Structures are given as C-alpha cells and as structure tokens.
# Entry
Amino acid sequence: MSDIYQTIQAPSRGIYKEKGSKFLAFGFPVETEDEIRDRLTELRKEYHDARHHCYAWRLGAGMDRYRVNDDGEPSGSAGNPIFNQIQSRGLTNILVVVVRYFGGTLLGVGGLINAYRSAASDALDHSQITKQKVYVQLQLYFGYSQMNRVMKLIKKYHLEQFDQQFDLDCSLKVKVWNRQAPQVMQNFRKIEGCDVRKEN
# Structure
C-alpha cells in the first residue's frame, strides 16, 4: 500500500456539446460506496429529465476498487472513456458522472467515446488535484497505570484518537500515517502491558 494518493480537492463541473446533445460532467471526491450512491441519487433527482447518467469511480490507495457504468449507452462507449480520464491523471477516491441530454442526432460509438471522454476531462481540468496521506487505525489496550506513557506517545506523534474507554482496563483507537505505523507500533509495544493491533 502506498503512503500517499491523489484525488480532487472539491466537487467540479465540466461540459461538452456535440450535434445538439449536451454532456454535463461532475467530479466528486468520495471515500465510500455509500457516498457514491448518495451522489448518484442526488444527480438523478436534479437531472431527472436527462436520458443517461453514465459514471466511473475508483476507491482506495491501492486503486484496485473501481466500477464503470454505461447506463444504456452502447457497451464501452461511456463508462470506460470516463474511467480512462481518472486513470490518466492517477486519481482515486473519486467519482465522475456524465449526464447526457440527447439532441436528436445519433453520434455513433466513436462520437460517444469522444463526448464522454471530453466531458469528463473538462470536469477534471476544472478541479484542483490534492495529495492525501493514507492512514491506518491502531487499536490500543492498556492498564490505567500505563495511561500517562500512552498519552505521551499520542501527543508526540500528533495522533487523532477516538473510541476511548478509560477504566481499570483502557482502550482507544488512533489514526496514524501508514508510513509511520511500524515505528509508532514499536514504541507502543515498548510500554509494558500495552497491546497494539493494526485494524484492516
């Protein structure tokens, strides 16, 4: 897994027109499939009179989770050209949707590929690319007497903590940059009675 990935900083828009057909493109930074579904639902409501809502998305720093959808256009003429624009820019955690209003003239498969590619490209050209760190979660278990030493390490590495449970037996989770995880885990393990586990 890499330490850093590229995505877009904020939602962006683009447009392409060809023989009366209008292709509206939308780029969104996303982190989950639920988020993707919500964005698609919003666009289908807002542009309910459009003929097609074609899209492509990719998730994860490993760039191995992705999907393309032609939404009724000829196979390979919409989703793949959109996805190729995501790939060529090396982006992930992104959804690109192209909404088509049909203009009455058939464009043919070649024309559609060009239109969907151009619309997606325009949306991404209007976006700001940003680099993001890849974080992993660590689960810590420790006794109350180890609390001070654990907290010192959390402060030292500026770790975000959550799901704390402080009692005689304590537990909490921290977010740590993937690159730093081995060193941070090693230091927590030096605290006698502190158990640290990396969550998938």
Q: What stands out?
A: Residues 108-125 form the longest helix (18 residues). The helical segments are 33-46, 79-88, 108-125, 147-156, 181-189. The chain has two domains: 4-132, 134-199.
